[in-house]
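Figure 3 (text version): structure tokens given as input.
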């Protein structure tokens, strides 16, 4: 049972019920759980947890008034669960309702509140009805992952194979986004036009390698990447077979061809290649020689066949049995899962050797490789393709601030601002800093261009470096210009967009889509010139349709109003002091970004949960299942015991049951 694309339905802290019910409605075949005998109604007159006697009345008083079919506040109809058996059959939704009640978000602060005893009764009823998920019995690794290489995975695979950075995927069809990422299996199908694109690209790769041959014209210098790619592909170690230069007969050349093609296929397919496939490759070679093509050209036909083979283009995992039982991944598949997760590319020689020896399956070896791979520059791919997508600063590439409003915006500033979060993330990951520093820190990663943009003195040069801060206006990822700009309009800030970003991406509490025909903010010249954005939003929120969502997201956006649409600090808007205060749904109050960040740091377990959910989706290439909640809970515990560090989360994921197991395809 795969959940929809929003984060986990098991949120134990801040969450919007509306997003959960939307998720619950999208689910197919929720787990059926029997209603506990204690909740059966006959003979339960004296049971305080009797649904008919007590609980239904509490839900009617505190929940159904706002969440019913006629008036589903925020799109949520809790009254549809009038029968406790329906509650039991939808544990995903009701565990989140439970979290809302416990956190004090439900009922909202302006609604009638249950007393302490009533709140406890509702909590106990939901706990007893939906039960606790048994992680000792959770043994479903989730849907089978079968997918083609996406564009960056293809380019990195070619680079690892040949050493050539050809960027051929720029001519491929765009990869679809699912669950917020471009590596999700169900979106990475293979169409006939894409097969043709891969065939053309494969021939281009072989042509680039062949250009480095001794016999190619013009003759390339030894430092040319194509020359190096040629040697890497065509040179045979002398202790394995006769070297290419010494091959003097067709028999010798054929033996060299076999050696070269087998080696190339092993690296391309990310596992040891079987003799039957090598023999088929040799059939292509032999046919080319019969057509009087030379030795190298004939090998080139085999190389092209490898590069268009499904074994290269598709990430599939080897089935082990003809039944429905999950099985452990073999070590080669585990190596690929690990490398594509951390590097967006194939395993290197060390990983393949550990897979070949069988050692990679050992927990200590696996976590040792995790550390090694994070320290490798190739792990920048995790920043580029996971963190940039999750935190949405990849949108900065397509964002163009209005230079009429911001005349100092230029290409140099755009490049520096885009680089800042990447350099900061690299520091946070390499140094394994606690999550609190991801949100709030007494330092920033700056170069002269970014420091000048922020009004921070004492930084010179193009190199980024850690700089101590005099105050906490900056510090952490959320107040970097890249994130602030990507959630702004070209000419002004966008409070709802910034708030929605924090609610959905950071806290996992995405509101439902806005209802149709929502009126726009007043944008006439007089309003823009005389009213702050907050004042215009207050008028907008007077519409009850708008208020239910804006009450949850606007305070999160108002906290960032001191930062303009290109991320600079400001104290005034249209000549008026900026009000960056707010009240969160649980009643927490703040005045400005510093206090707001302190509140977020105090909710590290909620943030860890969201980060783990997103990492798990990205690592597995699929949506979450109920069994994945066990991995998420284990990651929260591991992070808590390790000062909330990313390494604890990653270690939990790569050693988890779903990461290391698979099941046969259902076809």
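Below: residues designed for each position.
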């Amino acid at each position: 049972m795969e959940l929809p694309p929003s984060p986990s339905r098991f949120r134990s802290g801040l969450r919007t019920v509306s997003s959960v019910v939307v998720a619950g409605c999208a689910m197919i075949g929720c787990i059926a759980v029997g209603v506990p005998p204690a909740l059966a109604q006959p003979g339960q007159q004296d049971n305080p947890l009797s649904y008919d006697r007590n609980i239904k009345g509490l839900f009617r008083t505190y929940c159904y008034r706002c969440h019913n079919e006629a008036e589903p506040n925020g799109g949520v109809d809790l009254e549809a669960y009038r029968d406790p058996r329906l509650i039991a059959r939808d544990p995903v939704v009701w565990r989140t309702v439970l979290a809302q009640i416990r956190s004090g978000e439900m009922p909202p602060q302006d609604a009638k509140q249950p007393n302490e005893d009533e709140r406890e009764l509702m909590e106990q009823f939901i706990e007893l009805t939906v039960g606790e998920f048994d992680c000792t019995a959770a043994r479903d690794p989730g849907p089978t992952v079968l997918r083609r290489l996406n564009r960056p995975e293809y380019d990195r695979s070619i680079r690892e194979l040949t050493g050539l950075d050809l960027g051929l995927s720029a001519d491929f069809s765009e990869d679809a986004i699912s669950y917020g990422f471009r590596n999700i299996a169900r979106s990475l199908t293979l169409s006939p036009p894409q097969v043709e694109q891969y065939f053309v690209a494969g021939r281009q790769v072989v042509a680039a390698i062949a250009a480095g041959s001794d016999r190619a014209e013009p003759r390339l210098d030894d430092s040319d990447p194509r020359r190096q790619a040629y040697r890497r592909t065509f040179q045979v170690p002398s202790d394995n077979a006769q070297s290419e230069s010494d091959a003097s007969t067709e028999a010798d050349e054929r033996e060299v061809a076999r050696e070269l093609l087998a080696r190339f296929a092993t690296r391309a397919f990310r596992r040891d290649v079987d003799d039957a496939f090598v023999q088929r490759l040799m059939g292509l070679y032999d046919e080319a020689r019969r057509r009087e093509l030379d030795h190298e050209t004939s090998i080139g036909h085999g190389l092209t066949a490898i590069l268009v083979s499904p074994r290269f283009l598709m990430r599939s995992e080897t089935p082990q049995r003809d039944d429905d039982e999950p099985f452990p991944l073999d070590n080669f598949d585990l190596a690929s899962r690990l490398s594509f997760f951390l590097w967006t590319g194939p395993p290197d020689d060390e990983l393949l050797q550990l897979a070949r020896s069988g050692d990679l399956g050992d927990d200590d070896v696996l976590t040792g490789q995790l550390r090694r791979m994070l320290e490798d520059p190739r792990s920048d791919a995790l920043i580029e393709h996971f963190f940039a997508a999750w935190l949405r600063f990849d949108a900065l590439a397509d964002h163009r601030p209005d230079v009429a409003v911001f005349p100092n915006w230029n290409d140099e500033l755009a490049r520096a601002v885009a680089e800042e979060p990447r350099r900061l993330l690299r520091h946070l990951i390499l140094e394994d800093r606690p999550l609190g520093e991801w949100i709030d820190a007494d330092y920033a990663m700056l170069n002269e261009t970014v420091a000048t943009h922020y009004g921070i003195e004492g930084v010179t040069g193009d190199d980024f470096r850690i700089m101590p801060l005099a105050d906490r206006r900056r510090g952490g990822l959320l107040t970097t210009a890249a994130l602030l700009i990507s959630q702004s309009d070209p000419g002004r800030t966008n409070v709802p967009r910034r708030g929605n970003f924090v609610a959905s991406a950071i806290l996992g509490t995405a509101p439902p889509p806005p209802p149709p025909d929502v009126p726009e903010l007043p944008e006439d010249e007089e309003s823009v010139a005389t009213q702050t954005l907050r004042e215009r939003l207050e008028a907008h929120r007077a519409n009850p349709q708008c208020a239910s969502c804006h009450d949850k997201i606007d305070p999160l956006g108002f906290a960032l109003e001191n930062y303009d649409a290109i991320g600079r600090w400001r104290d005034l808007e249209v000549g008026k002091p900026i009000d960056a205060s707010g009240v969160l749904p649980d009643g927490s109050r703040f005045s400005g970004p510093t206090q707001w960040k302190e509140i977020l740091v105090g909710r590290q377990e909620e943030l860890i949960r969201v980060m783990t959910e997103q990492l798990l989706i990205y690592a597995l290439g699929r949506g979450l299942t109920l069994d994945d909640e066990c991995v998420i809970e284990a990651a929260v515990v591991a992070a808590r015991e390790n000062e909330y560090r990313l390494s604890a989360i990653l270690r939990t994921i790569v050693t988890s049951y779903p990461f290391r197991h698979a099941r046969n395809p259902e076809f």
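The chain is about 50% helix and 5% strand.
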